[in-house]
């Protein structure tokens, strides 16, 4: 695609909200929590009612702080041991970027059907996806993509299909926005996430990932870039 076409596609995606066209039932969730040790032998599960909502930057400070805290809880140690290091202020800037888009899984602990950006809320963030519509490569763009920056789920609600459900919504919105791919970055040592994307979500190592290039400098990269093509998808 020509650069002009790519920019037109990403600009259009940024100004559209296809989320409102999704069936409400698809966005309502009953999430089983991971059992505590005392509940392992009991025939019961704690169920949390939740909903997925879409937000464009900026997030309300209460929701932003919860997302940042969840990121630190899930990824802090991994970032500290990586070549990137852990910089929470830089992560906050990333989450407040003008182009940031979010899918938040919010507990249904209030009576509101909608939670407009900028409104105070006591809702708890159980998980979130942060993504943006942009070019696949800053230096040599070829196609418009939806780039997933974060997918984080509270530890007590993992292994309940929530991550897969959020990814399905991310991919559906990308498809409706005429993006050619969904792309993301994963640490190589994060074998749990790598298996989730490669095996469960059917992503592949993208052609631009460092492991596809020869040279010692590329062998030392501690991450892979994964992608799923949406071209031809219905």
UniProtKB/TrEMBL annotation:
SUPFAM superfamilies linked to this entry: Acyl-CoA N-acyltransferases (Nat)
Subcellular location field: Cytoplasm; Nucleus
Domain of life: Eukaryota
Broad class of where this protein is predominantly found: cytoplasm
GO cellular component, one term: nucleus
Catalysed reactions, semicolon-separated: N-terminal L-seryl-[histone H4] + acetyl-CoA = N-terminal N(alpha)-acetyl-L-seryl-[histone H4] + CoA + H(+); N-terminal L-seryl-[histone H2A] + acetyl-CoA = N-terminal N(alpha)-acetyl-L-seryl-[histone H2A] + CoA + H(+)
PROSITE patterns: GNAT
GO molecular function: protein N-terminal-serine acetyltransferase activity
Coiled coil: none
Residue ranges of every copy of the N-acetyltransferase domain listed in the record: 73-234
KW Nucleotidyltransferase (keyword) present: no
Alphabetic keyword roster: Acyltransferase, Cytoplasm, Nucleus, Transferase
One Pfam family per UniProt: Acetyltransf_1
Annotated signal sequence range: none
EC nos: 2.3.1.257
Protein family (similarity comment): Belongs to the acetyltransferase family. NAA40 subfamily.
Descriptive protein name: N-alpha-acetyltransferase 40
């Amino acid at each position: 695609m020509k650069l002009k076409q790519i920019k037109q596609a990403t600009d259009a995606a940024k100004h559209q909200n296809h989320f409102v066209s999704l069936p409400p039932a698809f966005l309502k969730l009953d999430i089983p929590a991971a059992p505590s040790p005392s509940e392992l032998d009991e025939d019961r599960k704690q169920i949390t009612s939740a909903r997925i909502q879409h937000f464009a930057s900026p997030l309300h400070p209460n929701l932003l702080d919860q997302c940042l805290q969840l990121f630190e809880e899930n990824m802090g140690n991994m970032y500290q041991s990586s070549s990137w290091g852990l910089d929470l202020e830089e992560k906050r800037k990333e989450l407040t970027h003008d182009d940031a888009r979010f899918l938040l899984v919010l507990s249904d602990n209030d009576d509101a059907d909608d939670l407009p950006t900028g409104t105070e809320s006591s809702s708890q963030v159980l998980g979130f996806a942060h993504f943006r519509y942009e070019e696949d490569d800053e230096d040599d763009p070829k196609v418009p993509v939806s780039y997933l920056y974060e997918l984080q789920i509270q530890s007590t609600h993992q292994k309940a299909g929530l991550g897969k459900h959020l990814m399905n919504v991310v991919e559906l919105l990308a498809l409706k926005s005429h993006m050619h791919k969904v792309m993301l970055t994963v640490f190589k040592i994060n074998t749990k996430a790598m298996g989730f994307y490669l095996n469960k979500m059917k992503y592949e190592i993208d052609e631009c990932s460092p492991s596809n290039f020869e040279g010692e400098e590329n062998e030392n990269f501690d991450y892979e870039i994964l992608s799923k093509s949406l071209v031809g998808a219905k």
